[in-house]
Amino acid sequence: MPEVQLNSKERVDRKKLKEDRIWTKGFTYITVTQSLYAVGIHMLIPMIPLFLVSLGAVESQVGVVATAFYVSSILTRFIINALLVRVGKKLILILGLLLSSVVIALYCTVETIGFATLLRVAQGMGLGVVSTLCAALAVDYLPDTRRGEGLGYFGMALVLAQTIAPPLALFVRGSYGFTPMFLVSAVINLISATIVFFFYKTPVIGSVPREATEALKEKTKVFDLRNLYDRKLIIPSVIIFLYGISRCVDMNFIALFAENQEFDYLAWYFVIQTMTMFFIRFFIGRLADRKGRNWVLIPGGFALLAVNLILSFAKTSGIMLLAAVFSGLGVGVVAPNLQMWVFGIVDPDKKNVASATFFNFCDIGSAIGAPLMGYIAEKSGYYNMFRIASISGVLYIILYITIAREKKKPAPA
Questions:
Q1: Range with the poorest average pLDDT among 74-78, 213-217, 365-369
Q2: Which CATH class is domain 22-408?
Q3: How many Cβ atoms are within 10 Å of 344's Cβ, its own excluded?
Q4: Which of 132, 312, 334, 335 has the fewest CB atoms within 10 Å of its CB?
Q5: What is the pTM of this model?
Q6: Which of 222, 184, 188 is nearest to 77 (CA)?
Q7: What is the DSSP code (8-state) at residue 378?
Q8: Taking the domains of the chain in order of start, what are their residue ranges?
Q9: Residues 356, 44 contacting (CB under 8 angstroms)
Q10: CB-facing half-sphere around the CA of 45: CA atoms within 13 A
Q11: Using CA atoms, how far apart are residues 279 and 231, in angstroms rounded to an integer?
Q12: How far apart are CA 229 and CA 81, in angstroms?
């Protein structure tokens, strides 16, 4: 059969199509790695508060343990950028995944709240490494013209993992106890480390050129704020901080709230929440790419506000499940588009900084919000906790709409 000759236009079109592909091998591997890691981590989100209560903790102590987790992840991200130049992304990612696996397995030996807090600190270090690198590496593989769509798919895979994790954890814990549940979570994290070790290669676009490595090592100091944070991200950081406060409430207290109120269908709360997140991401990335982020981040803020307001009046399991729908809408819309926002602001060589900034300020919000909300729940009850938490949603909406209006104003003549 004679070889088909392509004209120059067809060759250009095929080359462009190849360059614009989303599902390359590298992007697929990093997506699978992040998803498996997410299953292991999100199995613990509803379980750690219940586990701490089984050890004798009260709500305020649950909040303090959550803060230890978030603070350690934040501090880890402060040094990750410098370590990447010296050690390499792949090795650090493997170490972060292995650390998470070992720490989760050690929960099986916990008998005191103090030891649980120590392990939560170590687990936060693993989260700081994995969350920063997976998001930054995913962006490395995505073409600029389809970044929002690609991050949407990346987020959908993450959401699918989150859909599986809480019901799986609740089932294993309900049937066999906490120890088997921790072991299942640890093994899943170990599988993700194995995938990175055997199959994953660092993308060329995200690599440091050999001739520039030594210069970058000298330039990239561990505590040089210029390499840890970008001044262009000040306003997005405040928005992310408010998102973190709003998000931390149902992440850390929904299981305790459901048990306190004797609500049924707690597992369905997480299923409905994550399935809503999953379906919304089928089109939210494209909408943001075509219409702009205002079309998604403002409605997403109203959805986040609705979650806490609904929960503050929830007297039945059905109302709690309604809040799960709005939680899925809010997180599914806001999280990926805030990430896309910060990635679009910084220079191309600062993607790791942008990724760390997103997760850091989200975790700072959670680190401040968790103990505060736990104290309020302990002293005034869960309903008042949800009502006070809704203030963060109101501030998010006001601040973002103010920013959007300022940018629309014509420049002075």
A1: 213-217
A2: mainly alpha
A3: 13
A4: 312
A5: 0.74
A6: 222
A7: H
A8: 22-408
A9: no
A10: 28
A11: 34
A12: 10
